[in-house]
Write a structure and sequence with these properties.
It is a single chain. Helix content is 34%, strand content 23%. The chain contains eleven helices and 16 strands. It has a six-stranded mixed β-sheet with strand order 6-7-8-3-9-10, with helices on both faces. The chain has a four-stranded mixed β-sheet with strand order 2-16-4-5, with helices on one face. It has a four-stranded antiparallel β-sheet with strand order 12-13-11-14. Helix 5 packs parallel to helix 6. 43% of the residues are buried. The C terminus is likely disordered.
Length: 324
């Protein structure tokens, strides 16, 4: 069984790329390959201008990695952890670099406490700080905010934005689609070991379209409302008789809410409510990975599809990847 098969990925320098996909899609395997933790048995990849296989040592000097589990030593203080990483990476002025990162990640007050006494969010921030000790050109973040509370997650998001502003290239895997929506310049949707779709969050949302819906006061008007939506969208409407609602997917940018209401009114449809709901990244994920083939765009509110890591147990890979 192959974990990856023909994975083709290019990430522009100084951008954030979100790597999304269902469980077992190959995301964590891709990260392990690109960070030289696994050796590919086919294909090629370049990281920061270096060949992944022939120049693995050079690649390691240019990258930082924050995995799914904290790599810091719980018996050391936060300050000691960062100084240790700085010395291991032969960073000049390890004490000053450690203090700089502690301040950047809001850990100065807890700097001299053992890492084992940190909260989960604080340990995650310390782990991220450790991956930045060497100022990497490319940073790999494998589900960096899993299990964090909203405040801790917001701190990590801000750190990623600052890294991007400084010119760092970030490859992010996450199970929080809102996170990818907010942080990523581009998204690569991985399915069955391949990149199935790529594009900006806005471009991917445009692929599946918005959801135009009308809720009518009289069930007898559903047929007329459906005819209007059929004509405006060119798609077969979906009826929800329990709510007296009818809706259809639309990719027409000229279909605005005022126009929808006018057309329904002209058809004599007694309206209670109407709306055109833009798709979320959850909708994109569900539709394009085939997780919910019959799921209409704009109706997945409350769903939180798990984009978490694959088990990484497959013993064969075949990838062709390019990263800035």
């Amino acid at each position: 069984m192959r974990a990856l098969c023909g994975l083709d990925l290019a990430v522009a320098e100084g951008t954030v790329c979100g790597l999304l996909g269902p469980n077992g899609a190959g995301k964590t395997t891709a990260v392990r390959l690109l960070t030289t933790l696994l050796r590919p048995d086919g294909g090629s990849a370049r990281i920061a201008g270096h060949d992944l296989v022939r120049e693995a040592a050079a690649v390691r000097r240019r990258i930082g990695v924050t995995g799914q589990y904290a790599s810091v030593d719980g018996d050391l203080t936060g300050r000691e952890n960062l100084r240790l990483f700085a010395r291991l990476h032969r960073v000049r002025g390890p004490a000053a670099r450690a203090d700089e990162l502690l301040e950047r990640f809001g850990l100065t007050e807890a700097a001299d406490r053992r890492a084992s006494d940190y909260s989960g969010g604080m340990r995650r921030r310390l782990d991220l700080a450790a991956s930045l000790v060497r100022r990497p050109d490319v940073l790999f973040l494998d589900e960096p905010t899993t299990g964090l509370d909203p405040a801790s997650r917001a701190r990590v998001w801000q750190a990623v934005r600052e890294l991007k502003a400084d010119g760092t290239t970030v490859l992010l895997t996450t199970q929080y689609l809102e996170e990818a929506d907010r942080l990523a310049d581009d998204i690569a949707l991985v399915d069955r070991g391949r990149v199935a779709h790529t594009g900006s969050p806005a471009a991917l949302k445009a692929v599946i379209g918005s959801y135009a819906e009308a809720v009518v006061a009289d069930a007898g008007a559903l047929t007329r409302a459906a005819a209007v939506l059929d004509r405006l969208t060119g798609r077969e409407p979906v009826l929800d008789r329990d709510r007296n609602a009818v809706g259809a997917v639309t990719t027409d940018p000229t279909l605005t809410l005022p126009r929808l209401v006018r057309e329904l009114d002209a058809a004599g449809v007694p309206l209670l409510d109407a709306g055109i709901r833009p798709p979320t990244l959850d909708d994109v994920f569900l539709r394009l990975t085939g997780e919910a083939a019959d799921h209409p765009a704009g109706t997945s509110a409350g769903h939180s599809p798990n984009g978490s890591t694959d088990d990484s147990t497959d013993d064969s890979t075949d990838s062709k990847e390019r990263a800035a």
